[in-house]
From TrEMBL:
This is Amino acid permease/ SLC12A domain-containing protein. Keywords: Membrane, Transmembrane, Transmembrane helix. PANTHER family: AMINO ACID PERMEASE, GENERAL AMINO ACID PERMEASE AGP2. One of its GO terms (molecular function) is amino acid transmembrane transporter activity. It is found in: Membrane. It comes from Fusarium irregulare. Residues 2-88 form the Amino acid permease/ SLC12A domain. It is a multi-pass membrane protein. One of its GO terms (cellular component) is membrane. The lineage of its organism: Eukaryota, Fungi, Dikarya, Ascomycota, Pezizomycotina. InterPro entries: AA-permease/SLC12A_dom, APC_YAT.
């Protein structure tokens, strides 16, 4: 990037990467929560995942997906065995 002599280029690339990461997270949350909701409607997931708010958002499924995402980040640390034991107990 330094060879191109464009001083703002690293900032542009950083902004594009951040936008891409946020977009991927939004797509994951949307698709996973809708999939959990659909599974609950078919009886293949717990019934509490069927709940919708007044705008049709499966808010319980969104919360579950967000919690699973947070647990995935915990597994990256050095105490991932502790997290696994906490989940299994």
């Amino acid at each position: 990037m330094e060879r191109l002599q464009i001083p703002v280029l690293p900032s542009i690339v950083t902004a594009v990467l951040i936008t891409t990461i946020v977009s991927a997270g939004n797509a994951y949350t949307f698709n996973a929560s809708r999939s959990l909701h659909a599974l609950a409607l078919e009886g293949q997931a717990p019934k509490f995942l069927r709940r919708l708010n007044s705008k049709g958002v499966p808010y319980v499924a969104v919360i579950v997906v967000m919690l699973l995402g947070c647990l995935a980040f915990l597994a990256l640390g050095s105490t991932s065995a502790k997290v696994l034991n906490w989940i299994l107990k």
